[in-house]
Amino acid sequence: MRTERVRQAAYRMRHHALNMGEAQGQGYVGQALGAADMLAAVYIDQLTFRADDPHWADRDRFLLSTGHYAIGLYAALAEAGIISVEELDTYGSDESRLPMSGMASYTPGMEISGGSLGHGLTVAVGMALGLRHQGNPARVINFLSDGELDEGSTWEAAMGASHHGLGNLIAMVDINALQADGPTAGVLRTEPVADKWAACGWHVARVDGNDVDALLGAFDSVSTDKPSVILCDTRIGRGVPLLENREKAHFMRIEADEWQICREQLTEGYQGVSA
């Protein structure tokens, strides 16, 4: 039942992402589809929060370092009941609380304004350290991309988290192997990435980020004595073959007649799951 709850939520979140994306005709839809299982595992299975009180002091903090993944997070916030599914229809429009890049000042449940890549983990380390000083048992979960591993500030933060023994900190890295400038391996090779995190003193798990059982197992394995990182190999556009095979998939332009095809392909791949 645990796995199925997350799986069904991820399916609905993918539909939400397609519906939001259609309003703009383009965007970071591929990342939202690829990371849906990761975000569903967090919000449906892991995070302690109160949907009606996003600023509850004892909540677990989820930091979206990759602000351009906001479309995926909005889908998760709707599944968690923090915002309504109906509000998703306002995505990217004037006066909306759901801008195309995540803004903490606009959106309930958005902890930081992401987008300046490489800053999320530094904020997460400070937040986790502050919570520990306060005696607050809440955890901090930081979502970042493989492209952010190009940034030196990420590795400074990784070393700082280990130095302070932040067992209340979990990092999740979406390894979809693609950046704005091309394949991640071609922009700046980071492999063997698991060894690098381990050398910084982190507990490391590497899993298929589109395998719900594997994701939940990785969360079950995290350390409470030192920071943990879950490296998630994902596929951009996951669940929609039409988009999985797009050559230029970082920022997608999807034609008007393709959106319904995308929905149908998604539904075909999730037989037995209700939207």
UniProtKB/TrEMBL annotation:
Keyword Transit peptide on this protein? no
Signal peptide limits:
none
Name any cofactors this protein relies on. thiamine diphosphate
Is this entry keyworded Nucleotide-binding?
Answer: no
Report the Pfam families cross-referenced here.
Answer: Transketolase_N (PF00456)
- Provide this UniProt record's keywords sorted from A to Z: Thiamine pyrophosphate
Family, per entry: Belongs to the transketolase family.
Its protein name is: Transketolase
Q: Which organism is it from?
A: Mycolicibacterium neoaurum VKM Ac-1815D
